[in-house]
Design a protein that fits this description.
Helix content is about 40%, strand content about 20%. By secondary structure, it is an alpha+beta fold. The protein has 3 domains: about 90 residues, Immunoglobulin-like (Sandwich), CATH 2.60.40; about 100 residues, no CATH class; about 140 residues, Glutaredoxin, CATH 3.40.30. The strands form 3 sheets. It has a 7-stranded mixed β-sheet with strand order 10-9-13-12-11-14-15. Strands 4-1-7-8 form a 4-stranded mixed β-sheet. The chain has a 4-stranded antiparallel β-sheet with strand order 3-2-5-6. A hairpin with a 5-residue loop joins strand 2 and strand 3. The relative contact order is 0.09. The N terminus is likely disordered.
Length: about 375
């Protein structure tokens, strides 16, 4: 179910043209539950809440400048929307009632991609079978379907942005494009320099631009930036140190990882440990950079100790005690694996799977 998002609104009998009202219906299976009205641009700040009764709920208020909002149930999805004067009607799978939200609804319908979802479910079932050939074929199909879905989403976001360059909906669409991972710092910076104020001044876009700037400054061809942390000893104790303790003068592979991250564990178990054993005699240094651990200090230490024992990690692990490593490198997701040359130049980043060894072999040949 799409947990509708909402916004926008009514000039009521009081005559205030800035009034908005949200009228939602069709949420009978949510009766008695609390629904939240969220300001997405302020990191999910809750602007209001209501309890669903007879499948209905309402929100009302005033708005001077349109902003991005969402209506969501605890633990459920939210549908992004624009808060603007007028009345918006919401059902579990659609919204309408004001100009920008009419366009938003068209975008939502276009990007449901139910055909791809059904096909993906079929191949996911085959992927879980014990037959190796079927799994391999299913994996290829799933990758292909995912690529098609990403392309459709990109095209829909681009169209939404192109048709709304002078309003908040265009800003939100550009944000989706920028967060999709295919936009560089230079591209987004160029767009924002010529954008209308409502787009150029959209704070989430400014935040993404800064992250892309950091990633660009630590991309291939740039000198690596040292990371201060604590080395974890074999008995679990921590000792102050930094990446340069090992990296300086050596070909160094750095793996940003966390104990709770499934893809991180897979990369370590399936690739990194084997590559370290294979190439450490040729001068390769591998550093596991532990980031984004959860809980208090005792839990973080215990979780890290367990994953090291479970996976048999023998190479050095640097704990990001300052919590600045991912920020410095503009890391948006983990694992993030980068290769640093003996001269301190970053040779490659965003490495995964077979690309890791290819980058290592290329560096060793030089």
């Amino acid at each position: 179910m799409l947990f509708a998002a909402a916004v926008t609104f009514v000039l009521a009998s009081c005559g205030n043209s800035n009034n908005y009202k949200i009228e939602a219906q069709g949420f009978d299976d949510m009766n008695g539950q609390t629904v939240y009205f969220i300001d997405q641009a302020s990191m999910g700040k809750i602007s209001d809440s209501a309890v669903v009764s007879d499948g209905r709920f309402t929100f009302a208020g005033t708005v001077d400048t349109p902003w991005v909002g969402a209506v969501a149930f605890l633990g459920g999805e939210g549908i992004s929307c624009v808060v603007e004067p007028g009345t918006i009607h919401i059902t579990p799978d659609s919204l309408w009632g004001t100009p920008l939200n009419g366009q938003m609804n068209k975008f939502i319908q276009k990007t449901k991609m139910e055909d791809l979802a059904q096909e993906m479910n079929m191949w996911t079932a085959l992927y879980n079978t014990p037959d190796a050939e079927q799994r391999a074929e299913a994996e290829k199909k799933l990758d292909s379907i995912s690529e098609i879905g990403s392309q459709r989403m990109t095209e829909a976001l681009q169209e939404l942005h192109d048709n709304n360059g002078d309003n908040i909906l265009g800003a939100m669409a550009l944000l989706g494009l920028a967060e999709g991972g295919d936009m560089t710092f230079g591209q987004l910076d160029s767009i924002l320099k010529t954008a209308t104020p409502v787009v150029a001044n959209f704070e989430p876009l400014k935040d993404v631009l800064e992250e892309l700037r950091k990633a660009d400054a630590t991309s291939a061809g740039h000198p690596y930036i040292d990371i201060v942390g604590q080395w974890r000893s074999e008995n679990g104790e921590l000792k102050d140190g930094k990446l340069s303790d090992l990296a300086n003068g050596h070909l160094t592979l750095v793996d940003f990882f966390a104990s709770w991250c499934g893809p991180c564990r897979q990369e370590i178990e399936n690739n990194l440990i084997g590559l370290w054993n294979k190439y450490k005699g040729q001068g390769l240094v591998l550093v596991g950079l532990n980031v984004w651990e959860r809980g208090n200090a005792e839990k973080r230490a215990a979780d890290l100790q367990k994953v090291i024992a479970d996976l048999g990690i023998k190479y050095p692990v640097l704990v990001d005690s300052t919590h600045n490593a991912t920020d410095t490198y503009g890391v948006q997701g983990i694992p993030q694996i980068l290769l640093i040359g003996a001269d301190g130049t970053i040779l490659a980043r965003d490495l995964r799977d077979k690309d890791i060894e290819e980058a290592i072999k290329k560096a060793l040949v030089k």
